[in-house]
Amino acid sequence: MKQTISSDFKLGILGGGQLGKMLCQAASTWDITTCVLDPDPEASASGVSTHFVQGSFRDFDTVMRFAQGLDMITIEIEGVNIEAVEILEKSGIPVFPQPSCLRIIRDKGIQKTFFLEHDLPTAPFKLFHSATEIMEAIQQERLKFPFVQKTRLSGYDGQGVLVVRNHGDLKKLFEAPSLVEDYIEDALEIAVIVSRNANGETSSYPAVEMVFNPVANLVESLLSPARISPELEETAKGLAIKTAKDLGIVGLLAVEFFIDKQNQLLINEVAPRPHNSGHHTIESALTSQYEQHLRAIFGYHPGSTKLKMPAVMVNILGSEGFSGPAVYRGLNEVLKEEGVKLHIYGKKQTRPYRKMGHATIMAITAEAALEKAAFVLQTLKVEA
Fold it and tell me: Residues 127-134: contacts with CB within 8 Å, 24+ apart?
């Protein structure tokens, strides 16, 4: 393979959302040519990639044409055309994460079965083909409330996830192949991002503590490091690294956990790419998750994951009740606060709960960072 840190090296990225944008920004510091494929002509990465191609990363022929002349391919979203990347890998183009990993992770049913087969702790679950099957399981008392239904494919940013607490919620069931798992009451949710290169070298970031928006069911904010015991932290890191090794993945793997009332760790799900739970590392860690991903797929040693100081990341979401051209309120007020770093993704249209950007808030103590983060969430609004 030709020298990677060079403008002669062409890295293809399937997906041009905010993750693709920030990956391009990291690659630019190493003089790497980035080529992005995304169906949206105004995708977040369109303005920062070296070359941008409008087209569907889900379409076989489009992906095959896009790959011509590329030296390596990576992804920022799991839902790419798997058959195309498999053929490209066989043709000699390095694809990371590998298609074999994508096959497992993109289907939540296969993913959960993988956890069981490799002795990775996860919540009890059952697989169903339809909502009708779920209703029959309830009638036969094989399934009890409360439970969580997740569509096996295409779930993203809280979509395709339904908490079913009683019979009244059954009308909301997804009519699609899905998994149903036990609802973990009063669970704390954390995430650990690990990297693994082709030589098997691994590294992990400190666990982060996640807070979810109760309406949109996506991460609203996170705290790094998580307020958990050192013993639990080491266990979570160990499980995350074991998951990456068992998958054999090259690149980043974000592993989300539940911590139940008995203080036991249960793997919720994983993502084979840079992740929302690692945005804060751009400013708060010695090595950002985006640089770490590049190090892993290029075969370099992992960078230091030490934190410079505690940090809170808040997602800047489209305000409820507003759809249309985005207008940001309160920018000047939050920018006057020391330690607040804004990332605006460049999405021209807002809608309720759409991820429009994020802010990382750093402070000497976690408490101070949390206090400033609350101010940012209250003050910065995306309207239309």
Answer: 127/152, 127/177, 127/178, 127/179, 127/180, 128/177, 128/178, 128/179, 128/180, 129/177, 130/175, 130/176, 130/177, 131/170, 131/173, 131/174, 131/175, 134/170, 134/173, 134/178, 134/180
Residue 102 lies in a domain: no
Locate tokens 């096959």: which residue? 103
Residue 266 has pLDDT above 80, yes or no: yes
Residue 147 domain boundaries: 124-182
**Packing angle, helices 18-28 and 289-298, rounded to 10:** 70
pLDDT of residue 67: 98
Is 354 domain-assigned? yes
DSSP string of 16-29? -SHHHHHHHHHHHT
Q: Is 251 in contact with 96 (CB distance < 8 Å)?
A: yes
16-22 average pLDDT score: 98
Residue 223 Cα distances to 8, 46, 189, 228, 369, angstroms = 39, 30, 11, 11, 9
Residues 137 and 233 reside in one and the same domain: no
Interatomic CA distance for residues 258 and 284, integer angstroms: 24
Residues 135 and 253 in one domain: no
Q: In the predicted model, is pLDDT for residue 158 greater than 70?
A: no
pTM score above 0.85: yes
Pair 284, 323 in one domain: yes
Residues 239 and 356 in one domain: yes
pLDDT at 214 over 80: no
- Do 170 and 304 share a domain, yes or no? no
Region 368-376: mean pLDDT is: 95
Give whole-number Cα distances, 39 to 52, 99, 159, in Å. 10, 21, 20
- Answer whether residue 266 is part of any domain: yes
